[in-house]
Fold this protein.
Amino acid sequence: MIEKKFVNTNNTQDRPDGKYSGVIADIQKDGVCPFCAEQLKNYHKNPIIEETEHWLVTNNMYPYKNAKHHILLIHKVHIENIKEMSEKAWSELHAIFLNAIERSDIPGGTMFIRFGDTKFTGASVSHLHAHLVSSDPENPGYTPLLTRIG
Ligand SMILES: [Zn+2]
């Protein structure tokens, strides 16, 4: 039997704290999905900012290097592909992005959804999730926010 993989230890780049790869390696050893409801509180310590029928919204614990804002949207039920998302989940996503942009006063940013086989996505967690990131160009030490998307 092929063991189910919930995380991809090859996709742990771009985190300035240097701890993220160890966190994902530990989760792989635990053999669980860190974004599923029964596990999330064990691996994610930031508060939930917003909750809808289909989504949890929180700040990423391991923001990308040079991100001023890094908001994580986690689909509440374990799915891995956008074809499993309901119309309601899609419409909630729209409202969540608008709320987050308003709440954090984000003048510009990038949104993306990581879905499907993680070897094609750069995702470290296979459970479907979305990111809203914004860089920090007014910081004197500004350098561009770069991340892997494949
Ligand atoms: Zn999951």
Residues 101 and 107 are 8 Å apart (CA to CA). The mean pLDDT is 94. Helices lie at 20-30, 37-43, 87-103.
